[in-house]
UniProtKB/TrEMBL annotation:
It comes from the Eukaryota. Pfam families: PGG. One of its GO terms (cellular component) is membrane. Residues 1-28 form the signal peptide. It comes from Lactuca sativa. InterPro entries: PGG_dom. The chain crosses the membrane at residues 213-233, 253-278, 299-321, 327-356. This is PGG domain-containing protein. Residues 207-319 form the PGG domain.
Amino acid sequence: MILLVAGFWRGLHFVVLDHMLCITPAPAIKNIHDSKAMHAQSNILVKRICEILIGTEDHDKVWKILGSGITTAVKYGAYELIEECILTYPGIIWYSVEGLYMFHAAIKERQERVYNLIYQMSDHKVFVATQLDKENENALHMAAKLAPPHRLNVVTGAALQMQRELQWFKEVEKFIEPSYKEALNTEKQTPRMVFTDKHKDLLKEGQEWMKDTASSCTVVAALTVTMAFAAAFTVPGGNQDNGKPLFLDDGVFMLFIVSDAIALFSSTTSVLMFLGILTSRYAEGDFLYALPKRMTIGLVSLFLSLVAAMIAFSATITLVVRDKVTWIAAPVVIATSIPACLFALLQFPLLVELVYSTYGPSVFRKQNDRWMH
């Protein structure tokens, strides 16, 4: 299989680079090829090292070397290395990583892939979940502490970071025994109390991030509401003596009316969502679902209103000057699409991250079928 994969990438490199591009190797494809090749070679190397160590029949040497590798693997999320070590030497699963079992260490380091792998080993999970460290803290206390900076920054924005921390806490809370949810550590704090104490600064930063973003977007949405409402009563071309619009039977005019209505309704929805964010109580639990949902709806509505407003503007220009400048439609459409594209480029990454973290597949999912009992 490894030779087949290597052959595939070598063939792709030859066909795409030499015959289609006829230039020096494309960095993107070359990087993918190198990454895949390095991953395959690493797997072979790990398997070979494990075989050699087991062949020595020296328990202390195997325990020390594999344990050292697992310690680094847990910190950086290299779950494949951990899996191979456990398959080769099952007893290594009880290795202590800086005084913690791997399950606790994965929670502390916020390495979801390592967590998912060990979670599927049901016997190990049930036993370790009841263990306490030297500070009399259980797995839920570990999840209640603030993540390391390099793991906290895997998502952008304090609000999404707070959401991810809540997702970790809720996940560990699912399997912990009910009595452990209210267990006290040496500081006489329950896991929930630890979470509140350790995340108070992040909570404050999340509040400010949400308020600043909502305030800025509310201004834009309110302006769009004003323009769309005014445009509905000052239609292009004016009205006839009976009050009906002059271009009522024109297809372009109908495009103007429909797009203006969409702009008005979408921008109004956006304003309401952002006002809901600004008037929120900003409790810890709100960052898990309520606030990201409102921000998502607000951003989608705002984008839709801007696009509709630009379409209405294009239709208006076309109606007014098409008799004098017949080619005006195409350049106007291109020009008015620029603001919508700029908004999409600036805000779309945030929207994608909001949707994925709130509605996307959970990071706590099945890692490998071979561990399912």
